[in-house]
Amino acid sequence: MARTLLSSGSNAHGQLGNGSLEDAHTFHPCHFLGYEPGKLPSEASKILNVASGANHTLLLLERTDGERELWGCGDGRAGQLGLKYQESISAGCSSSVFRPIELDLDSEDYSYKFISASWETTYIVLASESRGDILISLGADDFGDLGVGNAKGKGKRVANPINIVRFDHLVVDGHSLPPSCAMTINSITSGQHHVLVHMDVSLSDGLNCGIIVGWGTSRHGQIGGVANSDGKPLPFFPVPRIISVDDPNDPVVSSSLGIQHSVLLRSSGRVTGMGSNKKGQLELIPQSRFRQVGCTWNGTYAIVEVEESKLGIYATGSDSHGQLGRGGGQIGPGIVIFDDAIPKFLACGSEHVLTLLQSDLGKEVWGWGWNEHGNLGIGTTEDALLPVKIWPPGEGNGGEEVIDGIWAGSGTSWISIISDDVG
């Protein structure tokens, strides 16, 4: 069996990793340095995540021996892919193929755990069997994106190529987090310029709890209420702050971020929204049981129970490009229903949505919304106001091909497929 990563959409800096600098209006296989086009690295057994910023992409792979590798492509001029990557690009290497990301880390005791990306910034969580997790940030610090303080506003950079995001200044229910705090990061999600991290912490008195922290842009309350001494909202907060402490009976299980809003999903299926509701992006159904949440820049989406054994996709927010999937020009929340198919997973890009559907015929990827760069991969640049099948292409169900994962970014879409290796 062979895995292939496919991409479509915006590609001015080679962020699709397909060997070109032109937008792709249909899905093309990604290229990996040192391997045949369309072939993943020979030892890669699984694609764990694809994280896309404005013009850069980070890929987390797992090898057959369980080790994990980091690959990247696209724009690295702000340092978001590391110094060695940008040195190779400056020396004439192509930014349009995935290449290994090499980071100068002090310890080899850590392995890659999670990745995330905001506009021009990258976040990497490192795990150790003997120590707590570490979060590092790379790239631009436009609105305190790096989470290390001293940010001055848009366009500012910091000198350090790799920054360790620290949490020992935080106080949880009167208990300080010591520098040696055992910390387990459960998830990290990022919007255009703000970040949320869900972690479990062990305090000095033996207390264990889950907390949600955030930093970055804050004017609209997307990381909770942050104000100056005059009570005016701060435009950004450059270091982690505690947003909430987990209810042990209903902890946070995931989160998703737009430009000016954030959504938390709890184990009960209850959702909590923060930030701007100017586009109706926080018009959520409190009594519904949500299975998964996702955010576009100005919208919120969720796989939700419609009735017994029936699932739909709840959609609310901006519909300027048909993002709500109900024909365009809609106002207010609604539910997208797929006859004879069950939505299994959502992937939300900047203003387009992908969903993985399961039916008696197998798995299919459908999508809708903004499509200016061909990011839906359907061969046009016209917005899709209603859901349209984007993979497998044509009328067939893909034969022996299996869809293994979907991701969406800033005008980009990604599909991982498994097929018989006849080569």
From TrEMBL:
<feature type="repeat" description="RCC1">
    <location>
        <begin position="3"/>
        <end position="63"/>
    </location>
</feature>
<feature type="repeat" description="RCC1">
    <location>
        <begin position="210"/>
        <end position="268"/>
    </location>
</feature>
<dbReference type="InterPro" id="IPR051210">
    <property type="entry name" value="Ub_ligase/GEF_domain"/>
</dbReference>
<dbReference type="InterPro" id="IPR000408">
    <property type="entry name" value="Reg_chr_condens"/>
</dbReference>
<dbReference type="InterPro" id="IPR009091">
    <property type="entry name" value="RCC1/BLIP-II"/>
</dbReference>
<feature type="repeat" description="RCC1">
    <location>
        <begin position="311"/>
        <end position="359"/>
    </location>
</feature>
<protein>
    <submittedName>
        <fullName>Predicted protein</fullName>
    </submittedName>
</protein>
<dbReference type="Pfam" id="PF00415">
    <property type="entry name" value="RCC1"/>
</dbReference>
<dbReference type="Pfam" id="PF13540">
    <property type="entry name" value="RCC1_2"/>
</dbReference>
<keyword id="KW-0677">Repeat</keyword>
